[in-house]
Amino acid sequence: MNAVADPARCIPILASLDLDESYRFYVDRLGFQGARYGEYLIVKRDDMEMHFWLTKDRIFPEHTSCYIRGGQVPALYAEYKARGVERLSDFVIRPWDMKEFYIHDPHGNLLRFGCAPQEIAENG
Length: 124
Hints:
Largest sheet: 4 strands, mixed
Shape: globular
CATH topology: 2,3-Dihydroxybiphenyl 1,2-Dioxygenase, domain 1
């Protein structure tokens, strides 16, 4: 197979009850950069990117999640813990052999951050 210069990526599109509040949370608390396009929000940090659409129905964000995986995860946990990010879980090894931590955003979207424990040992 040939290497692709711009490989396809998956980008979650999550629901927000208030795009301004989502913007402030992801930019001010989690260190993303963001841009608003009417009733649509895009936030980016390094290779992470998430999109948000506006809804009035809590059922959407309260039943949605996004998984973020990679070697940057331990550093993100340390940063978010130092920042005092609300609703930050412990960073522990789960039964499926991934070391993970979780954050719920202000509207209930679950952000699951994880990496394989051996990746931490190899890189750190």
